[in-house]
Design brief:
The complex is a heterodimer of chains A (about 120) and B (about 110).
Chain A: E1 4-6, E2 10-13, E3 19-25, E4 31-38, E5 42-49, E6 56-57, E7 64-70, E8 73-78, E9 87-94, E10 97-98, E11 101-102, E12 106-107, E13 111-115
Chain B: E1 4-6, E2 10-14, E3 19-25, E4 32-38, E5 45-51, E6 56-58, E7 62-67, E8 72-77, E9 86-93, E10 97-99, E11 103-108
Parallel strand pairs in B: 2-11
Antiparallel strand pairs in B: 1-3, 3-8, 4-5, 4-9, 6-7, 7-8, 9-10, 9-11
The chains are: A mainly beta (about 120), B mainly beta (about 110).
Chain lengths: ~120, ~110
């Protein structure tokens, strides 16, 4: 089974800090995604990447950036954390497309970030 | 705009009863849907999927029904157990994922 590992389960950071959320997958998948999950809003796509050093903005990229230096690792960066970025962050990956369908979509366990 | 959503935010059922969780979608061109289960403190886990050329698909204790006419999807859980307590999402897979807000299922003993 694909394993998607998020390095921290819980994080507490101060406003203005630079925050790194790490995601590592062990199955050589090319496609990786970062979502945030908020009550009543579901999962919203922040950024995604289809290859090393490649990144694309999702629906809510403001206040975030990403890094994909190696295929297995996709990092989400909060340049200057704010309280409205308190949320659950989920990393996901899949191994390709069958027609237009993503195959093998797998999530990490999530990082609950609190910005104080 | 296009959206994937759920009718009810919470559902409470008695242990042993059947549960039905509903989902509406608005993109009539969507042809593949997935149900996920998310337990507290965990990431979403795949439950079952269905393609638009099907009306029904069954798994172990779960059944997904797709009504393309009214753009409605449902997840049925038979003989609901305490371990089924979780948040359930439908997702529309169009290459990237579009999720609803989720329904929290609570199973009462």
């Amino acid at each position: 089974d694909v394993k998607v590992t998020q390095s921290s389960r819980y994080l507490v950071k101060r406003t203005g800090e630079k925050v790194f959320l790490e995601c590592v997958q062990d199955m050589d998948h090319e496609n990786m995604f970062w979502y945030r999950q908020d009550p009543g809003l579901g999962l919203r796509l922040i950024y995604f990447s289809y290859d090393v050093k490649m990144k694309e903005k999702g629906d809510i990229p403001e206040g975030y950036s990403v890094s994909r230096e190696k295929k297995e690792r996709f990092s989400l960066i909060l340049e200057s954390a704010s309280t409205n970025q308190t949320s659950m962050y989920l990393c996901a990956t899949h191994f390709g497309y069958s027609g237009n369908r993503a195959r093998g979509y797998t999530f990490g366990s999530g990082t609950r970030l609190t910005v104080v | 705009g296009e959206s994937v959503g759920l009718h009810l935010p919470t559902l409470s059922v008695q242990e042993g009863d059947n549960s039905i969780i509903n989902c509406a979608y608005s993109n009539s061109a969507s042809d593949y849907f997935i149900w996920y289960k998310q337990e507290s403190g965990k990431g979403p886990q795949f439950i079952i999927d269905i393609r638009s050329n099907m009306d029904k698909r069954q798994g172990q204790r779960v059944t997904v029904l797709l009504n393309k006419t009214v753009k409605h999807l449902s997840l049925q859980i038979a003989a609901t157990q305490p371990g089924d307590s979780a948040v359930y999402f439908c997702a529309e897979n169009r290459g990237d994922m579009r999720f609803g807000a989720g329904t929290r299922l609570t199973v009462k003993p």
